[in-house]
Request: fold
Amino acid sequence: MKLNHINLYSHDTEADRVMFELYFGLRTLVVRGTKMAIMQDSDGLVLIVNHFDNKLEGFYYPRQFDILHIGFIQKSREDVDALYKRLSTDGWEVQAPRDTHGTWCFYFKAKGGYFIEVTTLTPVRPTEAYQGNLQ
Reply:
């Protein structure tokens, strides 16, 4: 099984679309005004950012959007630092990279209201690996 798409609620779909293209290499497939942008990465993952306030009725969506985040894994600390520098230079409010749970990472808030994590690969220790036991 492969994850093939992610759909995120966004307060600013156009700003987010531009950010994903400029900093994360996604390409835009479809734009529907200010309501939706559909993008794809080089591995085929589709990312959708939408602003469908009218669709929230009858569908439970957390009202605290700040807990939502997506992550982009970088090959090295130097790659994390380079992206941090680009974002900072371009005026984004970005946390300084730091060691977190064995990774080198930082977070910043997208214009759409959710957070983006930029990180090195998270090491999984054998004792933490999923063994099929949910208890």
The beta strands are 5-9, 27-32, 36-40, 46-50, 69-74, 98-100, 103-109, 115-120. Helices lie at 13-24, 77-89. DSSP finds two helices and eight strands in the chain.
